[in-house]
Amino acid sequence: MNCDTNPLEAGLDYFIKLNKPADFIGKAALQEIKGKGLKRKLSYLSVRTDDVDPEGNETIWHNGKVVGNTTSGAYSYSSQQSLAFGYLPLELSSVGQQVEVELLGKKYPATVIQEPLVLTEPTRTRLAKKAKA
């Protein structure tokens, strides 16, 4: 999170109660953003690289145009692949969408994947609560 992103884009809406009567810093701004609708969202990417891995702040391309940037990334030993989080326009954020991530001046194919790859206990709890809502 930084001043260029908001918790709704980052998928943290579960932790924000916009309908509670108490006021909090940023509530009006978030209500306005929610009312207008999101333009992008944080997506999980599998990046097919050779010997370089994403670290964050790499450019994401689609059809020759810059469409977003990664926020973080690394090689996942548990899933044996390079993974990254990145902000993509809503129309490019569906699971299976193909994009490219630029690493060290070279573009590598990437696919939007369903997160999470590993279901830890906190993740299972969060997904179960999200399913009930």
From TrEMBL:
Q: Which stretches make up the Aminomethyltransferase C-terminal domain?
A: 40-118
Q: Which domain of life is it from?
A: Eukaryota
Gene3D superfamilies, alphabetically? Aminomethyltransferase beta-barrel domains, Aminomethyltransferase fragment
Output the Pfam families linked to this UniProt entry: GCV_T_C (PF08669)
Name assigned to this protein: Aminomethyltransferase C-terminal domain-containing protein
Native organism is Ilyodon furcidens
